[in-house]
Amino acid sequence: MAGLEVRDVSVRYGAGVAGVTAVDDVSLTVAPGEVLALLGPSGCGKSSLLRAVAGLEPLAGGQVRYDGADLAGLPVHKRRFGLMFQDGQLFPHRDVRRNVAYGLETLPLTRQERDERVAGLLDLVGLAGYEQRAVPTLSGGEQQRVALARALAPRPRLLLLDEPLSALDRQLRERLAGEVRAALVETGTTTVFVTHDHAEASAVADRVGVMDRGRLLQVAAPEELRTAPASDRVAEFLGLRA
Ligand code: ADP
Ligand code: MG
After folding, report:
1. Of 46, 77, 100, 101, which is the most buried if we count CB atoms within 10 A?
2. Ligand 2: distance of its center to the CA of 232 in Å?
3. Position 242 confidence tier, pLDDT thresholds 50, 70, 90
4. In what residue span(s) does the ABC transporter domain sit (predicted)?
5. What is the pTM of this model?
6. Where are the beta strands (DSSP E) in the chain?
């Protein structure tokens, strides 16, 4: 199938009885252009699953496939996936333009093409004209927007976002969640977005996968999760039950 397919994936840390099963036999798909949120409490295995998809964590079982091909043995940098974390990890000594252009340096683009792409991405994330700003002069929200532009710049075939808004205050987070969704939809970017915040998951995603203790409990559109939660645990986690 086209897009991402996670098939019976498990991730374990340590061996034997001392080992932890962080991801337990999870299967899911993300269609081309779709935004899927992975939602669940801290420690439920969201980051482990994301890292396994990226190729940063070995699989204890199962397969990660993209556009029908098994990615086993394909190293991280050859997957053409983009990654972004809670702390966008911008290069502090590069200006905004050179941060966003980072992933373009190895592509066969003229300087003008590269500058145009950077300008277009900054416009997309609401930072038009910020090219020459120094990273330490940016607010936390602005830094995460730049990190998003940088992650989108090489046009990754899958974007993996791990709690990209969690370090921001709630008000800003809610506004940015809508803006992130708009940028992902406009660029048609196939995305997995990890969060522990159900409002954020609903604002960002076409479908939400609810995780608990390494397992995927339900995957559904936000509205369907609210109206037809598959279990008490899902309802509880969405704040529908006390
Ligand atoms: P989440 O991102 O949902 O908070 P994680 O994937 O980070 O969850 O962690 C899932 C489980 O795996 C937790 O019990 C955590 O303690 C454990 N874990 C995560 N990373 C490691 C590691 N490198 N070594 C051992 N255990 C780990
Ligand atoms: Mg995590």
Report:
1. 100
2. 23
3. low
4. 4-238
5. 0.96
6. 4-13, 20-30, 35-39, 61-66, 69-70, 81-84, 158-162, 191-195, 207-212, 215-220
